[in-house]
Design goal:
Order of helices and strands: EEEEHHEEEEHEEEHHH
Strand content: 15-25%
Radius of gyration: 20 Å
Shape: globular
Length: 235
């Protein structure tokens, strides 16, 4: 992985054959990334980082504040929760009258239904519900998309990955955060393709971006959307 280190700042370099300008960004997890053309010189990138040191520290501080300011979900009737890109309201009920009686959370006719008695454990219940849907849905999307990347994973696992949407191992396993199931389907598909390509190239080298461009020609706009909007899809 190409990296620039200046003082206490570590900056990851991601090159792309399609990019024409150098851009410095702070990712949703607080990491610092320079997006650059394949031909960009290291000195040029280092100069940009040095000029932006004050801005970098300001943005890291702001990012940290934003993450702490995200409104906490309230598990009350009327609260909205994302599922595959759309927001649906929660309704607390005394009994859940659906064909899946016994579940603590139901998704029925465009609403989430939860017995009032479980509201205090709402976050845990929603996490478990999302995780089960992710385990069912994401592997099916992987199987539909793997031919575009020209590779098949050895296995797929859904877990909590912290700030990462996904990762992979050198043995061919794909790991995805259960929170993917909150995102719009086209964003989920892109993140799946991104990790499938990483099974070929375990880095962010020019070779990786060339494969990614072939599998997902709109990868730059997808990454931009995730940088700008990904924090909304929290629980």
């Amino acid at each position: 992985m190409e990296e620039i280190k200046i003082k206490d700042i570590s900056v990851q370099v991601k090159r792309s054959a399609r990019r024409r300008t150098i851009e410095l960004t702070i990712e949703r997890d607080g990491s610092i990334v320079v997006y650059a053309p394949e031909t960009a010189g290291r000195k040029e990138m280092e100069t940009l980082v040095r000029k932006k040191l004050l801005w970098i520290h300001q943005q890291i501080g702001r990012k940290s504040e934003e993450l702490h300011r995200l409104p906490e979900k309230e598990y009350v009737s009327g609260e909205g929760f994302y599922y595959r890109g759309r927001k649906y309201r929660l309704k607390l009920v005394d009994t859940v009258q659906t064909r899946n009686n016994g579940d603590r959370l139901q998704f029925h006719h465009g609403r989430f239904l939860m017995p009032r008695q479980y509201a205090e454990k709402g976050q845990e219940i929603f996490m478990n519900w999302y995780a089960r849907r992710a385990v069912d849905w994401i592997p099916r999307r992987v199987r539909l998309l793997q031919d575009r990347a020209g590779i098949q994973p050895s296995s797929i696992e859904i877990r909590d990955l912290g700030f990462r949407w996904g990762s992979c191992t050198r043995k061919g396993k794909l790991l995805f955060h259960w929170r993917l199931i909150l995102l719009p389907p086209e964003r989920i598909d892109y993140l799946i393709l991104h990790e499938l390509v990483h099974l070929h190239e375990h880095n962010h080298s020019p070779a990786f971006y060339e494969r990614l461009r072939r599998a997902a020609p709109d990868h730059e706009s997808q990454e931009d959307w995730l940088r700008r909007n990904g924090d909304q899809y929290e629980l």
